[in-house]
Amino acid sequence: MKALVLVVSDTVYEGKGEDVSGELAARMLRERGFEVVKAVSPNKPAEIIKSLREHDARLVVVVGGTGPSPRDVSVDVVESIAWREFPGFGEEFRRRSINRVGLRALLSRAGLYETFDGRIVAVLPGSTDGVEVGLSILLEIAHHLLEESSRIAGAHRVE
């Protein structure tokens, strides 16, 4: 199954910084059997949407843009193209993150969404801690969620 890792970072996009978190996300996905494609976008809504449209991956991991800064627009962009949110993901993400970074974790808007075209999109912070925590949750549910999101009729598969 194909997965897209979309790094949203002006610094990485402009070549002024190294993409450590996106590489970590790609490695973790590959270790779980996903074929990974990577892309980088600046913190601009139109550019983020353009990057999402250019790839046909059913699972998308957006890295960066979940904080309180006015430049953190990834969550807002994904919410604008999503038809469903899975709030338990963000809740669990923040619960686990508090153990690592303290109450700053409450400022993260990390989330999990399904788009109108049936893709699953996780939006994670740009830190390596955020990627590790988010993917540790996502990878436990990804295959089931991808299966369920594509099932129009028929019985549930028991795992």
Question: What does the model show?
Answer:
The chain has 6 helices and 6 strands; from the N terminus they run βααβαβαβαββα. The protein is of the alpha/beta class. Helix 2 (20-31) crosses helix 6 (128-150) and helix 5 (87-101) packs antiparallel against helix 6 (128-150). It is globular, with a radius of gyration of 15 Å. It starts with a strand and ends in a 9-residue tail after the last helix.
What's the structural blueprint in terms of helices and strands?
Elements: E1 2-8, H1 10-13, H2 20-31, E2 35-41, H3 45-53, E3 59-63, H4 74-81, E4 82-85, H5 87-101, E5 111-115, E6 120-124, H6 128-150
Parallel strand pairs: 1-2, 1-3, 3-6
Antiparallel strand pairs: 4-5, 5-6
Distinctive features:
single chain, 159 residues, alpha/beta, globular, six-stranded mixed beta sheet
Brief write-up:
The protein has helices at 10-13, 20-31, 45-53, 74-81, 87-101, 128-150, and strands spanning 2-8, 35-41, 59-63, 82-85, 111-115, 120-124.
Strand order of the largest sheet: 2-1-3-6-5-4
pLDDT < 50 runs, ≥5 residues: none
The proportion of residues in beta strands is: 15-25%
Helix content: 40-55%
- Rg over CA atoms, rounded to whole Å, is 15 Å
> How far apart lie the N and C ends?
18 Å
Largest sheet report: 6 strands, mixed
Order of helices and strands: EHHEHEHEHEEH
Q: Specify the overall morphology.
A: globular
Q: How many β-strands, per DSSP?
A: 6
Q: Structural class, from secondary structure content? A: alpha/beta
Number of helices: 6
Q: What is the residue-mean pLDDT, rounded to a whole number? A: 94
